[in-house]
C-alpha cells in the first residue's frame, strides 16, 4: 500500500518560494501550528502572564517542561511545552522562522509526514533538554523548528534529484546560516536551550531521512507502512527515554508541585510561604505573622511550604546544606513549630527539612 501526495505536481514549478505558485490554503499544517502557538500566547496574556518576560512560575501552569513535574506524572509537558513561550520576542522569532521554513518543508514531505516530523522533533528536543538539565523550566517551539530544518536538510541529502542543484545550495546555505547563528546566540545567552535545539535537529534529520526516501526510484511515493513505522518507533523511543529519565531522577513530585504550582504570600523581604492543598491564603498570612514574632525567623528570608491534606498539616522548611547535620537547627525549627502551631490549626504537624533541589532530607512529627 502506498500513499500519494498532490504536492508532487507542484515540485517542478518551484520558484524561490512555494507560496508564489501554491495556494496558501495548501499549507494547513504550518498555519495551524502557528495559530495554536499564537492562541496559547494570547490566552496566557489575557490570564495575566507577562507578555514580555514571564517567569517560570507563570509558564508552568500552562504546560512548560521541568523534570520534577514531567518525570513524576506530567509526561504531557514534553508536548505542551512546545506551544508555550517566554514572551513576545520568543514567540515572534520562532513563529517567523516557522513561517519561513514550515510551508516549504510541508510541501516536500506532505501534510501528515510534516506533522509527524514536527511532533517527533519537538518531543525529542524536550527529552534531550530533560536529560541535560532536568531542573530547568523550558518552553518554546525551537526544538520542533530545528527539527524542521533537520528534515529539510535530510530531504536535500536523500532526494538530490527533486530540487535543482542551485536551489538546493541556496536552501543549504540559508539553513547553515540559521544554525550557526543560533549556535553562537545560544552560547552567548544563558536562557537559550541549546540541548533542545540540538535534540530536535537530530531527530528531525534522522526521521527526515526515513520519510524522504522513495519506495520506487523516480517517484515520491512512500509506503504507508514506513510512515507508520517511523511514528511507532519514534514515539516508542520517546516514551522509553521518558521512563528511563524518571528512574534515573528521584524527584518528590508532590513537593515540587506544591512549590512550583501553588500560590504564596511574602515572608520578609526575600522569603515566602507557599500554601497548598486545603491551606488558604489566610492560613499562610497567619503563619507569617506568627513567625515574625520569633527572633530566629523574623526577616530571615526563609522559604517554606504549608500544606494541608486529609486532616494532616505539613511544614516544609527550605534550608541550606549545613543545616541538615546541625542538631541545633532541627531543635530551633521544632521549637518554632510549637509556637506557631495555633496559627495553622494546631498540632500535630509534620516538619520537613528540604534542600535547594526540594529533596526531603529530614522529617519529624511535632506533637
Write the layout of secondary structure elements.
Elements: E1 2-3, H1 28-46, H2 56-59, H3 67-70, H4 77-80, H5 88-109, H6 111-132, H7 142-158, H8 165-188, H9 194-212, E2 222-223, H10 224-248, H11 253-261, E3 264-267, E4 271-277, H12 281-291, E5 303-309, E6 312-318, H13 327-340, E7 349-354, E8 360-366
Parallel strand pairs: 4-5, 6-7
Antiparallel strand pairs: 1-2, 3-4, 5-6, 7-8
Helix pairs in contact: 1-5, 5-6, 5-7, 6-7, 6-9, 6-10, 7-8, 7-9
Protein architecture, described:
The structure is a single chain. This protein has helices spanning 28-46, 56-59, 67-70, 77-80, 88-109, 111-132, 142-158, 165-188, 194-212, 224-248, 253-261, 281-291, 327-340; strands at 2-3, 222-223, 264-267, 271-277, 303-309, 312-318, 349-354, 360-366. By secondary structure, it is an alpha/beta fold. It folds into two domains: 2-251, Rhomboid-like fold, CATH 1.20.1540; 254-366. A six-stranded mixed β-sheet has the order 3-4-5-6-7-8, covered by helices on one side. Helix 5 (88-109) packs across helix 6 (111-132), helix 6 (111-132) runs parallel beside helix 10 and helix 7 (142-158) runs parallel beside helix 9. The longest helix is centred in the middle third of the chain and has 25 residues, at 224-248. The radius of gyration is 26 Å and the shape is elongated.
Amino acid at each position: 500500500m502506498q500513499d500519494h501526495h498532490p504536492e508532487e505536481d507542484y515540485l517542478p514549478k518551484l520558484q524561490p518560494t512555494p507560496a508564489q505558485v501554491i495556494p496558501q490554503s495548501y499549507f494547513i499544517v504550518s498555519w495551524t501550528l502557528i495559530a495554536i502557538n499564537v492562541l496559547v500566547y494570547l490566552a496566557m496574556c489575557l490570564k495575566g502572564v507577562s507578555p514580555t518576560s514571564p517567569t517560570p512560575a507563570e509558564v508552568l501552569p500552562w504546560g512548560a517542561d521541568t523534570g520534577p513535574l514531567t518525570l513524576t506524572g506530567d509526561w504531557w509537558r514534553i508536548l505542551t511545552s512546545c506551544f508555550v513561550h517566554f514572551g513576545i520576542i520568543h514567540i515572534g522569532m520562532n513563529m517567523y522562522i516557522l513561517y519561513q521554513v514550515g510551508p516549504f518543508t510541508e510541501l516536500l514531505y506532505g501534510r501528515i509526514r510534516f506533522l509527524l516530523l514536527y511532533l517527533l522533533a519537538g518531543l525529542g528536543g524536550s527529552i534531550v533538554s530533560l536529560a541535560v538539565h532536568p531542573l530547568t523550566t523550558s518552553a518554546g517551539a525551537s526544538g520542533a523548528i530545528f527539527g524542521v530544518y533537520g528534515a529539510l536538510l535530510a530531504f536535500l541529502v536523500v532526494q538530490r534529484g527533486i530540487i535543482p542543484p542551485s536551489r538546493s545550495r541556496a536552501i543549504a546555505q540559508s539553513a547553515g546560516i540559521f544554525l550557526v547563528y543560533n549556535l553562537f546566540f545560544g552560547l552567548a545567552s544563558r536562557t537559550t536551550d541549546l540541548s533542545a535545539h540540538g535534540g530536535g535537529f537530530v531527530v528531525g534529520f534522522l526521521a527526515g531521512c526515513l520519510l524522504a526516501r522513495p519506495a520506487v526510484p523516480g517517484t515520491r511515493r512512500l509506503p504507508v507502512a514506513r510512515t507508520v513505522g517511523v511514528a511507532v518507533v519514534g514515539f516508542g523511543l520517546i516514551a522509553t527515554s521518558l521512563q528511563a529519565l524518571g528512574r534515573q531522577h528521584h524527584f518528590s513530585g508532590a513537593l515540587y508541585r506544591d512549590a512550583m504550582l501553588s500560590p504564596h504570600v511574602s515572608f520578609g523581604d526575600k522569603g515566602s510561604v507557599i500554601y497548598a492543598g486545603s491551606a488558604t491564603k489566610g492560613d499562610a498570612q497567619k503563619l507569617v505573622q506568627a513567625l515574625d514574632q520569633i527572633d530566629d525567623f523574623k526577616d530571615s528570608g526563609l522559604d517554606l511550604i504549608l500544606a494541608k491534606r486529609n486532616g494532616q498539616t505539613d511544614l516544609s522548611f527550605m534550608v541550606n546544606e549545613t543545616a541538615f547535620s546541625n542538631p541545633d537547627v532541627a531543635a530551633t525549627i521544632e521549637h518554632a513549630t510549637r509556637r506557631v502551631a495555633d496559627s495553622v490549626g494546631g498540632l500535630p504537624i509534620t516538619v520537613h527539612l528540604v534542600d535547594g533541589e526540594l529533596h526531603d532530607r529530614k522529617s519529624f512529627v511535632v506533637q
